[in-house]
From TrEMBL:
Name of this protein: histidine kinase
Origin species: Flexivirga aerilata
Pfam families given in the database record: HAMP, HATPase_c, HisKA
Keywords: Kinase, Membrane, Phosphoprotein, Transferase, Transmembrane, Transmembrane helix, Two-component regulatory system
TM stretches of this protein: 12-39, 164-188
GO cellular component terms given for this protein: plasma membrane
């Protein structure tokens, strides 16, 4: 019960209702006292005018009749009026027996003063009469007319209004809070529904989507964003499952080969016969594990430590590696190009592309480097093999993809080589594309960021390096025949 109350108190609807109540009650209370002050100012002004008019009437009567009782006989019964001489003695009064001055003010003739005027409302203010004193000359003598009025009626009227308004403030505040609670419930209802729908989505039901409200508002935008996130999660989950399944499938063959070899090798002679096979399969598994680890590292965090690399030197070194080692002619035909990237990553890119091209070339592979737009360094690898269909050029960089499914895993690779090329290139700020080569095969082009100032006038002139190597069968343990 207590936990439910705590959750309720922390809910957004409660906070909205409380903020709304606070936003209503504070202005209401301030408004009540501002209104009371305005009423006080208005009523006091009217009362001052009324009492001043009565004092002026008495002054006229004193000027005409002298300071007699008749001069104050026409004063409003709710008021008190006295006439004082120069000594402050009462010479006439509207109330018989009232011989005390109403105020100590003694204005000169034709001037007046006001005492007890209240322009601001103060709760619980004590009764203070309003007194208007006016000087007048009659028969060569100076007199002071004083007229007073009680302010109790005005004060009670304003106090009554203030009490009514203050009593109504909690009611209005409660209504505003309830209205805010109801409106926020309507607004947050779809959010709660979406939350429940998302809570019900599990790894096995990532194809479920949140219902998008028909209104084109923020709630609909939130639902759309959640669905996009679920799309990405479903795609990532599917990729992960396929990745694990493919990796497991790839490991089954070498593991089965190892198991069979170990079971058959019962003596030293048989072990010497199966040792090369075991060594080759261990090498294949080691290569697969290393490739998987590299891809996982690239997925986890972007590569750092970019430096200037001589792309043409790396390309020529890769061509030199193949010299005399294949029936495929591998040559370099390019110009100096300097880019930015990690040396080992760029070397791995060049090696994977050249290995892939040699596997599919009929007779020749051409490796070239050049400087592109903005000083970018470009590595191009062309082969004269069967090429890659346009429909498959996008997915050729996906992991564990073999375009030639007829090849066995002993002849083909794991389908990770080109995926590694793409991830390494992008981690260096570049990219890789595939197109048709001038010789009809496949052309892979890697672009790395470079500097214009460093791209020209440096390096060696392009030169062709070619090599003849032994047949592919002699490299069965380290290279494959499928595009990877």
């Amino acid at each position: 019960m207590l936990a439910s109350l705590v959750r309720l108190a922390r809910s957004l609807r409660v906070r909205i209702a409380l903020v709304t109540a606070l936003a209503v009650v504070v202005p209401l209370v301030i408004g009540v006292f501002v209104l009371a002050t305005l009423l006080q100012h208005s009523l006091t002004g009217s009362l001052v005018g009324r009492v001043s008019d009565q004092a002026a009437g008495v002054a006229n009567a004193v000027q005409q009749q002298g300071p007699t009782e008749a001069a104050v006989s026409n004063v409003d019964p709710s008021l008190r009026a006295v006439v004082l001489d120069r000594t402050g003695a009462v010479v006439a009064s509207s109330a018989p027996g009232d011989q005390a001055p109403l105020s100590a003010d003694r204005p000169r003739p034709n001037t007046s003063s006001v005492r007890g005027e209240r322009r601001w409302y103060r709760p619980g203010d004590v009764e203070t009469p309003l007194i208007v004193s006016q000087g007048v000359r009659s028969g060569g003598r100076d007199f002071v007319i004083q007229v007073s009025s009680s302010q109790q009626a005005q004060h009670e009227a304003i106090s009554t209004d203030v009490k009514i308004l203050l009593l109504g403030t909690p009611v209005l505040t409660a209504l505003a809070a309830l209205l805010a609670w109801w409106v926020s419930g309507l607004a947050l209802g779809p959010v709660q529904r979406m939350r429940r729908e998302v809570d019900e989505i599990e790894a096995r039901s990532l194809d479920t989507r949140v219902e998008v409200p028909p209104q084109q508002d923020e709630i609909a935008a939130l639902a759309t964003t959640l669905n996009r996130m679920l799309d990405r999660l479903e795609h990532a989950h599917g990729e992960q499952r396929r990745f694990v399944a493919d990796a497991s499938h790839e490991l089954r063959s070498p593991l089965a080969t190892l198991q069979a070899a170990v079971e058959l090798a019962t003596d030293d002679d048989e072990w010497r016969q199966v040792a090369p096979t075991v060594r080759d399969e261990i090498g294949r598994m080691t290569g697969l594990v290393n490739d998987l680890l590299l891809l996982a590292q690239l997925d986890e965090r972007p590569a750092t430590g970019a430096e200037e690399v001589d792309l043409d030197d790396i390309a020529q070194a890769e061509v030199q590696r193949w010299r005399g080692d294949s029936t495929i002619r591998v040559r370099y035909d390019g110009s100096p190009a300097r880019g930015r990237g990690r040396q080992r990553a760029v070397e791995r890119i060049a090696r994977n592309l050249v290995d892939n091209a040699v596997r599919h070339a009929r007779s020749e592979v051409v490796v070239s480097t050049t400087t592109g737009r903005g000083g970018a360094a470009v590595l191009t690898v062309d082969d004269d093999g069967p090429g890659i269909p346009v429909a498959d050029r996008a997915r050729v960089f996906d992991r564990f993809v073999r375009l030639d499914s007829s090849r066995s895993r002993g002849q083909g690779g794991f389908g990770l080589g080109l995926a590694i090329v793409r991830d390494l290139a992008r981690s260096s700020g570049g990219d890789v594309t595939v197109a048709e080569s001038p010789s009809g095969g496949a052309r892979f082009e890697v672009t790395l960021p470079g500097q214009v100032s460093d791209a020209a006038g440096e390096g060696q002139a392009g030169r062709g390096l070619a090599g003849r190597v032994r047949p592919e069968g002699r490299r069965a343990g380290s290279r494959c025949r499928a595009r990877c």
